[in-house]
Structure formats: C-alpha cells, structure tokens
Amino acid sequence: MTRLWQLIAQGLVYAAVAAGLAYGSAAPAYRRLAEDQAQITFTVVHGGQRLEDCRDRSAEELAARAPNMRKKRVCARRRAPVDVELYLDDRLVMAVAAPPGGLSGDGASRVYRRFAVPTGAHVLEARLRDSGRAEGFDHVRQVDVQLRPGQNLAVDYRPSDGGFVFE
Predict the structure, then answer these.
(1) Number of other residues whose CB lies within 10 A of the CB of residue 73
(2) Are 135 and 58 in contact (CB under 8 A)?
(3) What's the mean per-residue pLDDT of the chain?
C-alpha cells in the first residue's frame, strides 16, 4: 500500500513540474522590442592601417642577424585604432574609437552595438576612419531605410564588398 502512495505522490510531483514548465515557456510573453520599434545591429571587425611603413634592412643589419632571421623587409606591427560613427537622421547615435586587438596591437579592432530605434523612414550614415589621421573619415556611406516594427537591420563593414553593407 505504501508503494502505491509513493507512486501517486511521484506522479503528482512530475505533473506539477511539467505544468510549471509549460506555463513558464508560454505564459510570460517576452518582447525584445516595443511594437513601434526596430533594431539596428552595427558590427565592425577591421584592422586599421599600419602606423609605420615597411622598410628594407641594410646589408650590415642583415649580416648581424642569425642566418634564419635574415628577412630583408621588416614591417612594424602596430596598427591605427578604428573610429566609427553612426548617424540616424543627422543625429549621432554611436561614436566608438576601437583600439587594435592583440598583444602587440596588430589585430583587428572590433565594434558590436545593438540599439532600438523608432520605425519608419530614416536616413542612416555610417563613417569609418582606419588611417590614423586626426580628422575626416576614410569610408562613408549614407542610405535611406524604411524600418518595420520588430525588424533587425544589420550594418556591417566589409572591405571586400566595397565598405559598409546594410542588410
């Protein structure tokens, strides 16, 4: 008789856990964005230009090195930081100065941002500076977009595709 009550109690516990899981997966309605908002995801993974030009070693420098280290052309590793800005309807939404990655500052700079914006027609302008100069931008692209409720617009920088890509 005791075994029967144990099985019934175990079944009730399993049913309560299953009901809790079913409620938890369906009932609390989660909305990532409000009904009148869209999302912009901005991504840049890009290495800035080298801060110093490559140079050729002299004959004396080559002779002073071990035979397996006699590389004629040497290039500095350090890269310029990448500065990016995003404007929405002539209003600055994001400005980031991303330092180069890596222990020696020779890797790609990385920027990843997401933010909610109102739906409707907008003018987006993305700017990127990777040359280390103080003013102006090396790559600029401006597009007109129509954002729908819940839409995610991806803005990515791909030099192989001609610069900024809006998808």
Answers:
(1) 8
(2) no
(3) 91
